[in-house]
Structures are given as C-alpha cells and as structure tokens.
Amino acid sequence: MEKLQNFINGVYQDPVNGAYMDNYEPATGEVYAQIPNSDEDDVKLAVQAAEKAFPIWSAMSNNERSEIMLKIASGIEARLDEFAQAESRDNGKPLKLAMNVDIPRAVSNFHFFATAIEHFASESHQMVGVGINYTLRKPIGIVGCISPWNLPLYLFSWKIAPALAAGNCVVAKPSEVTPYTAYLLGQIVKDAGMPDGVLNIIHGEGGTAGDAIVKHPRIKAISFTGGTNTGEYIARTAAPMFKKLSLELGGKNPNIIFADCDFDEMLSTTMRSSFANQGQICLCGSRIFVERSIYEKFKKAFVEKVDATIVSYPNDPKAKLGAVVSKPHMDKVLSYIELAKDEGGTILSGGEAVQLEAPYNNGYYLRPTVIEGLSYDCRTNQEEIFGPVVTITPFDNEEEVLMMANSTKYGLSATLWTSDLKRAHRMADKLHAGIVWINAWLVRDLRTPFGGAKASGVGREGGWEALRFFTEPKNVFVKY
Ligand code: NAD
C-alpha cells in the first residue's frame, strides 16, 4: 500500500516517530494509503529547514519569487488530470468538480499571488513642512498554514501562495482526512526551483502535528481554516505567544428568497448553493428562507429537483453528489437529520444514506435532504451540519427574515434573491456576514476580502488583505 511522506527541506521523508495512519477512500470505504502521523519532532525539523531558507527566500526580488510561483501554477496545471483524480479519490467529490473547480482554483491561487506581489506597494504619509513617514512591509519569517478537508488543495494553496509570495517560509499541514494533493505538491515545488526549506509540508492529526505548529515559538503567524471549536482552541493557544492569527471558521449561511426574484435562476443556483460538494462548503446556504407568497411554489419545484438528483460514485459522469468525506462525518450528518425529526421537522426529500452497488457498497453516500417545519432557533437551524442538508422556512417581511438570518452565532456569508435594488442594498447592509451575494452564489474575485464575522472567524483572506496579513508593517519617519 502506498505510503505518503512529509516534505521537509526539499526532501520527501518518513515521520521521525515512524508512525503512520490510515487514509480512506470515501467512495468505497476502503483504506488506500498510509499517511505520516507526525508530531513535534517533524515540526522542529521543518522549522529548522525554514529558518535556513528564510534569508535566501526573503532576499529574492518579488519578481524572482513570482517566477518560481508561476512555475508551480503551470506545474499543477500540466498535471490537472492526475491532481483531479487524486482529489476526488481522497475526498469523495465528483471528479468533474475536482477537474472544473478544485484544481483550476489551486492553479489560480498560485497565479494570482505570484502576480499580485509584483503590484503590492506600501504607503507613505507626508506631514507638510515636518517630514515623511513611509511604511515598510517585511515578511514575517516562518508562518504556519493549517487547512481543512472540504476543498483540500484549493484552500491549502489559498494560504500558502500569499505567504510565499510575501517572502515567508512556510510550515503547512493539510487535513489528515485529505492529504494526497498536498503530498503531490512537494514534487511540483521542487521542480519549479523553489529553494529547499521554503515550503515544508507535514502530515498528521490536528491534535499532535497541528498543535505542534501552533505552539512552536519560532512560527510567528498562523493562518487556519477549519471548525469554530478548533479555531477557538488555536486562538487560546497562540494569543499568549503574540502570534498573528487569521481564522476562517464555520458558517450557517442564510439563503433569502423574495417573491420578486428571477425564479428559474434562483432555483438552479439554490440547488448548487445547497448541495455542491455534498453541502461541504463553508459558504453553502443551509438555511433557506422563502417569502410566504411563493413558499409552496418553491417547495414543489425544489423538492422535485432534489428528488431527481443523482448520488453516485465520484467517477460516474452522471453524479451530481459523490460521497461525503468520512464515516464519522456521515454519522454526524445523519445524527442531525434525526435531531431535526426530534425537533418537529418534516423530511421533504432524502433523509437517509444511499447504498450503491459493489465496489461502492461501503462508501459514504447520503441523499440530499430538505427539511421543513422547524423553528429558526432550534439546534438544526443554529448549528453547522456541513453536509447535504437544508431547511426551508417561510417569512412575511424583511424585518422578520433579517432577524432569523442574523440569529446564529455565525456570520460567514449570505445569499439574497430579489429584483428590488433598494431592498438588496438595504438587506446587504444589515446582514451579519463577511460576504453577501445578491442574485448569485460563490462568485469569487480573488482580490476581494474573504472571511466571516462573529464565530465565523477573525481577519480576512484574499487580495491585499492576505499580503498584509503575511507581512509586518514598519513605519519609518524622516524629518525634513
Ligand atoms: P477541523 O477544525 O477539524 O480541522 C481543520 C484543520 O485543523 C485540519 O488540518 C486539522 O488537522 C487541524 N486541527 C485540528 N485540531 C487542531 C489543533 N488542536 N491544533 C491545530 N490544528 C488542528 O475542521 P475540518 O473538519 O477539517 O473542516 C470543516 C470545517 O472547516 C467546517 O466547520 C467548515 O465550515 C470550516 N471551513 C471554513 C472555511 C472558511 O473559509 N471560513 C472554509 C472551509 C471550511
């Protein structure tokens, strides 16, 4: 069976403790690879390598770093098929999705930040007759990047690309549930001519390998995407060490549908915003609020489409949904469906696991699920489920839907469907969310601030925000 390795100091290597853990294929439920169960000893080696590399990498011109990163982007692009197959096998997502979204976006992340750094500038502030301030933006040094399993290479590269572009050296850990494409990246980085030790990739569990990254005193900043509870733990651990922190956490996003929307466009986008990637996107709109006058029409049309949705193995070109990521995650989602029933909800579609034919009979498949009849403040409507499960709830006016939409502890994104321009702006202004889409969902411009309010996180990624996060400003004053 294939054994993955850590990538430290430009060399693939076994974990110091020699310990490995199983890597499952969600489509079949079978173990198909072993991954390093690394600990603080591997993180120490990675930090030593990064410290050696930092004077070289940070002294390069922006253009030199940019050239290497562009080679990484084209290196991934040249192996699109292989990366997409690996991502789909590791995560359970339909191959089509990995081919069209995940891997192309990883390419774009490297491309975007490789070019952005060439345009990154710092500020100056003149004091007339007194002098001038100018602000230097220096790389921080060694930074830690920790990412989740839902969009594995997409989110891994979203962090490491700006960190590297800004001149930092990186110790990165992909999710232990989906390590494979991050493992493949090591070779691409090597082939692109990145100096050894600039990017180090450690595999292993959050509580050991991840924790060792967060606690290492010479890692000066942590960029983390994952669950809110993990984010809280990381903040508690890293804050007393005065580390810079960027936390992209969970969501429970509202999808608000007014009667005056373009119904057909709303319906097809709502199918995606509900169930894309098996509902395992932090931006999915899992709470659907529908204006009462079109509630029955929406319910009928939506449930018809959901009933007709094909759940199948990831390589099936007909699959709209593939497998969810793991057995524990499938059990968690199913337990929320039971909770919804206990809370008085009615299952309108789905609500159960799907049994495929061999060799997929032990895979983790769930029917997309629609639930109605729940109060806005019950647990099903307040807690993140992170699976193919949505609730639908009618509303009568703007005030009421705003109150329900804003009632959770989260504040990541919101989607709004209306053709009333004034209402759209009014609502966008009042929604508790870091990102609001009007008559759209998941349209991404990599220059815009990305992140959430309240328990959905601290700080923003994307564009200049990311380059500012990964640099330390130093103001210099010169007297006239
Ligand atoms: P998770 O918090 O369990 O794990 C995320 C990463 O953190 C993994 O690499 C894991 O190994 C590591 N980790 C776990 N415990 C750690 C610890 N104590 N110290 C250091 N690292 C640790 O999250 P997950 O289950 O992989 O991902 C799903 C969650 O991610 C959902 O809540 C989802 O909303 C969130 N998410 C948020 C965004 C966003 O941009 N806001 C994007 C994608 C996913």
Walk me through the structure.
By secondary structure, the protein is α/β, with parallel strands linked by helices. It folds into 2 domains: 2-249 and 456-479, Aldehyde Dehydrogenase, Chain A, domain 1 (3-Layer(aba) Sandwich); 254-445, Aldehyde Dehydrogenase, Chain A, domain 2. The protein is 40% helix and 22% strand. It contains 15 helices and 23 strands. The chain has helices spanning 40-59, 62-78, 80-91, 95-119, 152-165, 180-191, 206-215, 228-238, 263-275, 295-307, 327-342, 379-382, 398-405, 421-430, 463-469; strands spanning 2-3, 6-8, 11-13, 20-25, 30-36, 124-127, 131-139, 142-146, 169-173, 199-201, 221-225, 244-248, 254-257, 287-291, 346-349, 369-372, 389-395, 410-411, 413-417, 435-438, 453-454, 457-458, 471-479. The strands form 6 sheets. It has a 7-stranded mixed beta sheet, with helices on both faces. A hairpin with a 2-residue loop joins strand 2 (6-8) and strand 3. Helix 2 packs across helix 6, helix 3 crosses helix 4 (95-119) and helix 4 (95-119) packs parallel to helix 5 (152-165). The protein is globular. The mean pLDDT is 98. The structure holds nicotinamide-adenine-dinucleotide. Nicotinamide-adenine-dinucleotide (NAD) binds next to helix 7 and helix 8.
